[in-house]
Amino acid sequence: MTEPAPSDDLKAADERRVVLAGRKWRARSRRVMLFRRVLPIAIVVLAGGTALWVGTRSIIAGVERSRVESREVRLSNPMFHGQDDQGRSFIIGAAQAVRDPDTGMFRLDAPVMRLTLEAGKTSELSAGQGLYDEPSRTLILRNQVIIEDGGAGFRFVTPEAVVDTRSGVVTGDKGIEGAGALGTINATSYAIYEQGGRVVFSGSGDDKVRATINTREAG
Q1: pTM of the model
Q2: Which has more confidence, 90 or 46?
């Protein structure tokens, strides 16, 4: 019996490797073709799903915003009239007011508050924006608040003023500067009593100023 030559074994081994490599290549080729078909579809589906989600969220947000806005009460040139606990009258006006349906507060654009003084004179507070809580009778003024005393000629500027319309007291702790018949003053916080009749200034840090001005006497 004749044994196969070594060259025949090598040839057979090479053929098996070629066949095996061909099978692997065909399998890999099928996977590549499958991925080429599936991946674009998956990308389109994901992109479509993302776009649908974003669109749905936008629609939901728009509906919610419209629902809230439909419940809001908008007033042009509103006027709020009232009196403090001592019967002194005041008027709060604005270019526009929007009543928040959830809190009941009014957001004010360009608010102005006028306090009636003796002899028909008035003190006036104006600002860029404001928030009026009518039930608690509190007015918060922000964005370049200007306080002017028509009786004494004082003019103060501050970032924020909180007005308790029940007592007529105006307070703030974000700084204040002003000028009048007695000169100028800069302070960290302030409190205005008696509808502008008495102003108390306080300082902190290096600024230890503390002063009380009776504006009626100054005028």
Answers
A1: 0.63
A2: 90
